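The material for today's practical consists of a large collection of protein records. An example says more than a description, so a record of this kind follows:
***
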Amino acid sequence: MRPQRIVSLLPSTTEVLFGLGVGDQVVGVTFECDHPAEARERRIVSSTTMPEGLAPAEIDAYVAAAAAAGEDLYRLDAGALADLDPELVLTQDLCAVCAVDVGTVDEALAHLGCRAEVLSFDPHTLAEIRESVLRIGAAVGRPAEAEVLAARLDLPVPATRDGARRPRVVVLEWTDPPYAPGHWIPEMVEAAGAECALGTAGAKSVRVTWDDVHAARPDLVVVAPCGYDRAAAQEQADRLVAEALLPAGVAVHAVDANAHWARPGPRVADGVADLRAALEAQSLLG
């Protein structure tokens, strides 16, 4: 039987559910679920403990302190969960900074006596994001639609002309302090036709230094701070340039990391297309 009441605790899975045409069955979401706009009309069952208005360095410090103290960064509204009485809950076990984890969900459901099916997602690569879409499609009875949606994630690495050098790209997943990306982001860079000069596909993001950024000899720096839209990313990019933290003369491109880079869903294909356009605009693709 197809679930009629679904709670999604990830913005990416919320996007997938609506993309599969089962948005009417989604009854609960997180405070971060903003795409499509209709998702904002659903009851919020998860919120953050982090104060609003923190600068990137302050966010990094807050997260580090919470982790050291063993404190949660997200609150799950058990009362809302009980009221909604979901049949299916989608959550994650990828990143404690990103959303409520599966352990917290399991504990809350057990406490409430709710016997909802819980699906947890932990994608590290583009192939695993694709598989996540197919798993959701199977769980909600929309396998054919899932195949169509997952096809957006078929992003082959484009061939280069003989002797052509791929442009070197440094992606900054955070700017204060700087972090190089892991997970699927290096694959996105490769799918755009470039080489990811810092960071390892499928691994965790890592803190780096500005010396590391300079040593990577980038042709383009992509400013993609997790959780920020393009306008906010541009503000951070402008600051990095003004403070001369980046290699002199390097091209800088700010992106909508919140929509197209940090969320493991089909819209990462839009991030790849945007990066390729930026590389072409700088005449960096051979």
User: Anything to note?
Assistant: Residues 56-69 form the longest helix (14 residues). The chain has a mean pLDDT of 90. The chain has two domains: 6-152, 168-281. The first strand starts at residue 6 and ends at 8.
